[in-house]
Fold:
Amino acid sequence: MRELFEKLLKMDRRWIFLLVGIALMVPILKPLKLPGLKASTPVQDLYTYIEGLPEGSKVLISFDFDPASKPELEPMGAAIVRHCMRKKLKVVAMTLWVTGASLAQRVVESEATAAGAKYGEDYVYLGWKPGNVAVITGMREDIHVVFPKDSKQTDLSKIPMMQDIRRLRDFDLAFSFAAGSPGLDTWIAYGADKEKVKMGGGSTAVNVPSMAVFVQSGQLVGFIGALRGAAEYELLMNFSGTATRGMDGIALGSYLVAALIILANIGYWLTRKPKGVA
Amino acid sequence: MSFGDIAGLWLATGLTLFLFSFLYRDNPFYKLGEHLYLGVTIGYMLVKLVYETWIPKVWNAENYALVIPPVIIGFLLLTRFVPKVSWLSRWSFAFIIGYGSGLAIPATFTSIILKQAEATTRPLVTVPTAAEQKALEAAEKTLADTRAARGNEAPETRAAEKAALSARRSGTYSWVRAYADVTTIILFLGVFSVLFYFFFSIEHKGPVRIFSRVGVLFLMIYFGASYGYTVMGRFALLYDRLLDVRKASGGDAWFATPIILVLMIGVLVWRHRTGKASEEPSH
Amino acid sequence: MLFAKRQLPLIICFVVGVVTALQDFVPTNFSQKVSIWLSDWYIIAAMFASLLGFGSVALVHSGRIRRQMKGWGYSVLVFVGVVAMFAVGVISGGKEVSDSGSPTPLTWMYVYAMVPLQATMFSLLGFYVASAAFRSFRAKSLESTLLLAAALIVLIGNVPFSNYLWSAKMGLTEWQGIKIGMPDIVGWVMSTPNVAARRGVAFGVALGAIATALKIIFGIERAYLGGGD
Structure:
């Protein structure tokens, strides 16, 4: 037994790579549709908040991520845009991450097309500007100066719905879907807290532990944590999107890693040399 | 699928598999993907800089007088590449750094220090307020009345029972209240012990040592949770890539995945046989 | 000359820093105008700052090509990537969707080259986080045991199926009015000990950031000036 574990602990890591690959590939080949998904409080809070907004409320959505985090953040971004359009809210989308500019545009356009929303009246995509905090600070004073044109190069002054959206505080709710900084915390510190704008958002799994402080403090009205959070939101919205389908893979993968940790520790305790012996 | 889409799928699948080949060992396919990645990213950023910043904000500016100063600041930054006059870039850096610092002070102070401190210092032990006690009495009375009027099984009675239960939890010192208080106390202790661990420059001995050790325990939970979330996050990315590779393996994508995979393996085996692969470090 | 090289940058930094910080406390019409100018200047300057980064990358790789260093061919690929993407961007007029409503070549390159490259690069870490756990997570002390326990709670507790077994099969949902479902347990760990530790760290970082910002504005911290006179 001891020798077996000694061998196991020393195995080539490429075997673990293979196991990870298999665990994630199985649900792709054959979806398991594991049950048990339930909305957590921060996700439910966000959903309830949007449900409570009257028709025509103005919402800002900043897609602060790049292709590296697309699988995690695109589904929640799409679910929120879908929810806003279903509730007939006015959506203004943008990004602080240059390499995410086309990504954000695609999400907004595809959801808008599906909802039959009209560009310039129901939604607008402003695109990207460099400067991170300067963009947010500028938007506090005048969005039309920071973004003189939208991403289609149309003057903002010629876009109907932008006539009564001039500054950050004109929004009833602001979102950031963030893969890091600049992101949710930047929006909170430099924008929302200053202008007393309600803020919601979501982040990649890696950032969930850091963003938890803003959920607990109430600086966020609600929060979507990673792919699981997105799947919860899809559940509340009554549709099964990429996040829901991805949960099986995450499930098998997480169980695999948990099993590996437990196995490695059993091995460690069995093969441990008594104290004093080098 | 159009020809453009199929060509695209081939490109995407090829690049994905090239990068995945690093799992076996470093090899030319991986290096190719890695360098192309750098190139296309910079190219894309340039496109966006030109079309979303330079043209709308500088070229087509309404008032050039307002745009000239920042353009000068920007050009001065580029003097970094000319050693003789590179000191000119200091003016620009002074502007950029001064602006960033000036913004950071009030923002950090309100959002991170004040708001976060406020959320930490809440009443540690809570007792039912007079209003909550009154609400409990009222709820109990409603329950008794409904029971008398409708009997035990009626839906109205069930609803009244539920209301009374939640009123009992807030109207007396219940388990729910105790749980909330313990949570507040743990949070408070945790924040202070972590600060203690980081900040106290006195020697960590006796009670100080114990308290700062408590801080370390909290940090460990934070690190462990972060690890758990990192695994989930990375797997989400991986799942998405594998999904794309799978999508490109069928006949509608002209079998991109299997064909590229076989070709890559062939080249890697050939390189291994001819000894060319030994130049790269293995795992 | 020395004034322009040494004192002037410190003065610029001081004035810009103080004006920016004070703007927050004196919200008059004039100060709002100044604020929007400053942010717009910063945005335009930031555009050039990116060029600074690209320039450094170009210098490194052109150097490799010029000296025909080992693997210089890969450096050529960097330029191929830049030129290809930029050319496609110019052809598309910088737009994602053409006026006729169809996706432009820029979108094609973005979707089929940039997205898979970036997403795959970061997804590779998925394999490494798994093998790292197996190789290095050992319950050797109270500290490492807590770390392991938190990791396992998050890993297992965040899988919906775990909650299904826990709540639907074992009936563990509530005790004395306290919710004890899987998401509630994970939620408690995240919103209590995790928040406590993270907040402690955040306070430290915030105080450090404010101190550094003050030092920069008052000219005590001058590392940004670089070396030389």
User: Anything to note?
Assistant: The radius of gyration of chain A is 22 Å.
